[in-house]
């Protein structure tokens, strides 16, 4: 059995997918930066090539590192990342604005990006011992704290997109570790109340449903009344929290909800992106032929809106290829999580798959105008060194986990 | 079943559901509503427009406009839209008088085929009307307003102001981060180049929606929009009246004038002739016209005052005198006899005055500029002492005037002579020539003017500069240029007394070579020079300053191949100084002194 482990250490499906992603990424970044004004942006294609090569190295190296090694390093890495993010929070620029990077000799290093997989690993490690079941309030609280700490620190930067990605991993991993449906309901209900509280009618409807569920669950009066009160409180405090959001965040939520028509501001980005995607048609306009891209109508076209570039130049056909590749990658990940016996590996993989799926859906939805603009990049494809290395790291861990079923 | 457990099925189901929603949305956008979005993208001509700020204006010392902007129209086209459209190419061909293939070729040189490419600057009104008339048939062809430099005072002084020209590929590589683009005009020479970043201002950006014909429909408000900030205005130390005067004096001559305010080093006049019309470069300069300028034997492209090197002739005799007085304890009353020539080392060295000056001392030698006297004096001075003295007076290094391309000249010393003639190939006899400002010694007129300033201030000087203050429109305030004060070390006041006495006699006493620079109400001191050179007739020099007691202005006049300094250069200096001391300038200088007193 040990010999089997040492033979080939990559999962061929995962490897195939990331090679395809790299190809899409190179084509898109090339096109998106082809007619850029600034020479720095024109150089981004060359940089992306370097990042992809480095990322593939990371992928292959990880394929040869047993997950046990990673298991032991997890809390240490978590601590370092928290430390780095704290430094950025404390020593950020005095004049406002976001600071998410360390600059080392011209290279930008974004710890909040690397935190994504490390957070999942820390969560998985905590939940690995048999007695650490999330159905016990103590362990559930620790799991929550593990996620909330970086969530709050990154939200402060402010980087709403990344902090939401952290949150996204929490419930699925807990669910995978057999968290009971009732507790999931309890956790989710305040969030629903929060969103619903912007309108009296929806808020009453939600509170009514919660009351009915609590009644049917028969968990005792104390639990029931506590949850009910918490939901009411959340509803009342929502406007206060709302006022603390940055104006641009409020603006984006408004625009997304269709409450404000603002064709020149934030909505302008979405409109241009939709026009780019729609005008691609079935076969697309061809490489470097996308007018939206080449005339630079697209905002952030080599980072967050890179899918619009691909959709414009490669059309429905190309878009579907990308969606299909993601689908294969993600379902393969879920399958690996389900058949791996080692709990740490299984929890890690499901967490990583969730993070990638979440970013992918949020980003694609954003470019197509069905999700709000949150500044989440498209995994494996958007331009960016930290993100590329992180994604390749995640793919490497998933690929390695697939080979640890015999342990 | 592929996924056996319930938990993974829920995960797979959720992901599939999301992807189906995304796929349906893609289907809706790219297949169902395709026509609508294609039309939308065709019409989509929201364009980021660069708003070029007006370039800073250049004023003279009393606020008269020297360089201003004047709007002209430029014709440009978007290569992506025009390069394959025969109708448009045909139209451009008739308007620009170029074959369509040539225009197509020019489009190929465009850095970015999606942004407007400048085809012709300064198009005339009839062309403009023609373009406007055919607007509907010419998508992608547009005209824009550009600023052209104009010179309302009539002073074009291309060597001072420089000129604007289209940015070259190499410049573009370096300066792209500043937001410069192909087709932009940048300062190519003089102040325009030296202070390009300040004069340019900062480019603004505007987002406008334009229709398919390139006409602006409306302004949009978008991220990244910013107004242009106009360039900084420059106030020079130059005096327009004096500059005009100087230029008129050199209409038919080669050479120039430098006048400095000795109290702060401000350049009052910097005239180099012949020059060229800077407006030649504003429009596309034909290769032929450029070749003519480069090959013109009169070398109009050179700024003679700071870039050309000349032997200074007798105007340099003050240096060897200073070296002798400082290092040899030379008594200025030492006499020598001039017979019109002298023999040293078996060679005959002539005085300019063949009949001989007879017996004279150092003061008289200055007055009549006797070469033989200075031969005797020079022989006692070591080359390196003389070279050191020259360097102290600023020779051999650039003055640091705020213009690009200044030359530093050559001051021969033992190292230089060893290099040129071999270790044993020369002896101190070299000093015979160097002492009277000939030989391998080369200087620029601006250095000579600075020299005159040093003498006027008896050792104190301020490096020459053109800019006195800069107005920043963003901060709404003036920035004064710092005035650097320097002093020549190792030259005693007695030495200055002696030299200045000699220079006084040169202009103000009977038989002085500089007599033609004498003014009736102001005491001028100076020294003439007649420099032999390999290019024909002697160069005529005059350097000096005035008034003698309280110097205000130093002057250097050079007339290339002008003959005798006393005959040609001195009268020009006199005219310039007379103009300076006429009422207009005088009152200005009085105001200036009053300002200087209050801290």
Strand elements of chain B, count: 23
Q: Which regions of chain A contain 5 or more consecutive residues with pLDDT less than 50? A: 258-265
Write the CATH homologous superfamily of the largest domain in chain B. DD-peptidase/beta-lactamase superfamily
Sheet of most strands of chain B: 7 strands, mixed
**Poorly predicted segments of chain B:** 589-599
Structural class of chain A: mainly alpha
How many structural domains can be distinguished in the coordinates of chain B? 2
Count up the helices of chain A.
17
What's the pLDDT, averaged over the residues of chain B? 86
The amount of beta strand of chain B, in percent, is 15-25%
Proportion of helical residues of chain B = 25-40%
Beta-strand fraction estimate of chain A? under 5%
Note the run of SSEs of chain A as H and E. Answer: HHHHHEEHHHHHHHHHHHH
Contiguous helical run count of chain B: 23
Percent helix of chain A, as a range, is over 70%
Strand order of the largest sheet of chain A: 1-2
What kind of sheet is the major sheet of chain A?
2 strands, antiparallel
Textual characterization of the structure:
The complex is a heterodimer of chains A (407) and B (599). Chain A is mainly alpha-helical. Chain A has one domain (2-135, 248-402). Chain A is built from 17 helices and 2 strands. Chain A has a two-stranded antiparallel ribbon with strand order 1-2. In chain A, a hairpin with a 2-residue loop joins β1 and β2 (107-109). The longest helix of chain A has 34 residues, at 306-339. Chain A starts with a helix and ends in a 5-residue tail after the last helix. Mean pLDDT of chain A is 84; it is low at 258-265. Chain B is α+β, with helices and mostly antiparallel strands and 599 residues long. Chain B has 2 domains: 47-100 and 118-212 and 223-236, Penicillin-binding protein 2a (Domain 2) (Alpha-Beta Complex); 240-597, Beta-lactamase (3-Layer(aba) Sandwich), CATH 3.40.710. Chain B is 37% helix and 21% strand. Chain B contains 23 helices and 23 strands. In chain B, the strands form 7 sheets. In chain B, strands 2, 3, 4, 5, 10, 18 and 19 form a 7-stranded mixed beta sheet that branches. In chain B, α4 (86-96) crosses α5 (100-108) and α15 packs across α21 (493-508). The longest helix of chain B has 27 residues, at 6-32. The radius of gyration of chain B is 33 Å and the shape is elongated. At the A-B interface, α8, α13, α14, α15 and α16 of A face α1, α2 and β1 of B.
């Amino acid at each position: 059995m040990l010999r089997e482990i040492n033979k080939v250490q990559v999962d061929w499906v995962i490897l195939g997918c990331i090679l395809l992603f790299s190809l899409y990424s190179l084509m898109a970044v090339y096109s998106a930066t082809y007619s850029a004004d600034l020479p720095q942006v024109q150089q981004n294609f060359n940089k992306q090539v370097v990042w992809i090569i480095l990322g593939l190295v990371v992928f292959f190296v990880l394929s040869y590192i047993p997950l046990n090694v990673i298991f032991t390093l997890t809390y240490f890495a978590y601590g370092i990342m928290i430390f780095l993010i704290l430094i950025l929070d404390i020593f950020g620029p005095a004049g406002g604005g976001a600071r998410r990077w360390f600059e080392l000799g011209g290279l930008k290093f974004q710890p909040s990006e690397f935190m994504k997989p490390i957070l999942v690993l820390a969560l998985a490690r905590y939940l690995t011992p048999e007695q650490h079941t999330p159905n016990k309030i103590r362990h559930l609280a620790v799991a929550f704290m593990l996620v909330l700490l970086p969530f709050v620190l990154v939200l402060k930067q402010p980087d709403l997109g990344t902090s939401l990605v952290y949150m996204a991993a929490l419930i699925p991993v807990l669910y995978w570790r057999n968290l009971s449906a009732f507790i999931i309901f309890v956790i989710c209900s305040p969030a629903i109340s929060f969103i619903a509280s912007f309108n009296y009618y929806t808020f009453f409807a939600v509170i009514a449903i919660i009351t009915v569920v609590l009644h049917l669950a028969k968990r005792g009066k104390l639990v029931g009344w506590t949850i009910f009160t918490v939901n009411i409180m959340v509803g009342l405090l929502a406007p206060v929290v709302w006022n603390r959001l940055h104006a641009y965040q409020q603006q984006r939520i408004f625009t997304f909800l269709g409450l404000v028509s603002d064709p020149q501001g934030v909505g302008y980005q979405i409109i241009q992106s939709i026009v780019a995607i729609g005008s691609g048609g079935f076969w697309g306009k061809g490489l470097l032929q996308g007018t939206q891209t080449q005339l630079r109508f697209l905002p952030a076209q080599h980072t967050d809106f890179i899918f619009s570039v691909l959709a414009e130049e490669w059309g429905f056909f190309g878009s579907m290829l990308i969606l299909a590749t993601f689908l294969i990658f993600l379902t393969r990940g879920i399958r690996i999580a389900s058949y791996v016996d080692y709990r740490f590996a299984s929890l890690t993989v499901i967490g990583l798959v969730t993070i990638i799926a979440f970013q992918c859906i949020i980003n694609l939805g954003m470019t197509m105008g069905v999700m709000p603009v949150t500044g989440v990049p498209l995994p494996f494809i958007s331009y960016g060194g930290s993100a590329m290395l992180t994604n390749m790291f995640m793919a490497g861990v998933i690929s390695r986990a697939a080979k640890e079923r015999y342990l | 079943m592929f996924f056996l457990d319930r938990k993974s099925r829920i995960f797979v189901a959720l992901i599939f559901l999301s992807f189906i929603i995304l796929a349906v949305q893609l289907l809706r956008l790219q297949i169902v509503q395709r026509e609508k979005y294609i039309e939308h993208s065709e019409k989509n001509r929201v364009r980021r427009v660069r708003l070029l700020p007006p370039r800073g204006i250049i004023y003279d010392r009393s606020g008269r406009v020297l360089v201003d902007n004047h709007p002209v129209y430029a014709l440009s086209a978007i290569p992506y839209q025009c390069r394959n459209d025969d109708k448009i190419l045909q139209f451009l061909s008739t308007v620009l008088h170029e074959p369509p293939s040539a225009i197509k070729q020019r489009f190929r040189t465009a850095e970015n085929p999606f942004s407007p490419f400048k085809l012709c600057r300064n198009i005339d009104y009839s062309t403009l009307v023609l373009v406007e008339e055919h607007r509907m048939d010419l998508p992608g062809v547009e005209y824009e307003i550009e600023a052209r430099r104009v010179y309302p005072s009539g002073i074009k002084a291309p060597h001072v102001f420089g000129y604007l020209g289209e940015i070259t590929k190499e410049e573009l590589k370096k300066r792209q981060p500043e937001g410069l683009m192909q087709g932009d005009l940048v300062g190519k020479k003089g102040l325009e180049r030296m202070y390009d970043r300040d004069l340019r201002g900062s480019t603004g950006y505007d987002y406008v929606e334009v229709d398919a014909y390139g006409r602006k429909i409306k302004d949009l408000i978008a991220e990244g929009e910013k107004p242009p900030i106009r360039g900084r205005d420059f106030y020079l130390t130059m005096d327009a009246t004096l500059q005009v005067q100087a230029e008129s004096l050199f209409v038919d001559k080669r050479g120039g004038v430098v006048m400095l305010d000795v109290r702060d080093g401000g350049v009052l006049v910097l005239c180099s002739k012949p020059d060229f019309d800077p407006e030649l470069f504003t429009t596309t300069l034909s290769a032929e016209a450029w070749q003519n300028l480069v090959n013109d034997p009169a070398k109009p492209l050179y700024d003679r005052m700071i870039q050309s090197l000349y032997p200074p002739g007798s105007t340099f005799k003050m240096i060897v005198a200073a070296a002798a007085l400082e290092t040899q304890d030379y008594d200025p009353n030492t006499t020598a006899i001039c017979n019109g020539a002298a023999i040293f080392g078996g060679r005959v060295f002539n005085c300019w005055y063949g009949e001989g000056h007879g017996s004279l001392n150092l003061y008289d030698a200055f007055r009549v500029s006797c070469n033989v006297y200075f031969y005797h004096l020079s022989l006692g001075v070591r080359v390196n002492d003389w070279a050191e003295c020259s360097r102290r007076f600023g020779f051999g290094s650039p003055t640091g005037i705020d213009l690009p391309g200044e030359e530093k000249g050559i001051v021969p010393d033992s190292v230089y002579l060893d290099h040129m003639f071999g270790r044993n190939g020369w002896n101190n006899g070299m000093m015979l020539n160097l002492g009277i400002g000939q030989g391998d010694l080369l200087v620029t007129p601006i250095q000579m003017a600075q020299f005159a300033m040093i003498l006027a201030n008896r050792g104190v000087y301020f490096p020459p500069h053109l800019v006195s203050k800069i107005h920043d429109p963003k901060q709404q305030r003036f920035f004064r240029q710092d005035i650097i004060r320097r002093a020549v070390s190792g030259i005693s006041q007695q030495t200055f007394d002696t030299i200045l006495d000699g220079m006084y006699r040169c202009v103000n006493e009977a038989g002085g070579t500089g007599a033609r620079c004498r003014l009736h109400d102001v005491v001028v001191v100076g020294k003439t020079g007649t420099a032999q050179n390999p290019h024909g007739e002697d160069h005529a020099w005059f350097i000096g300053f005035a008034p003698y007691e309280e110097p205000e202005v130093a002057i250097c006049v050079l007339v290339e191949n002008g003959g005798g300094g006393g005959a040609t250069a001195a009268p020009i200096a006199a005219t310039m100084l007379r103009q300076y001391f006429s009422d207009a300038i005088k009152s200005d200088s009085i105001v200036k002194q009053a300002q200087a007193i209050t801290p």
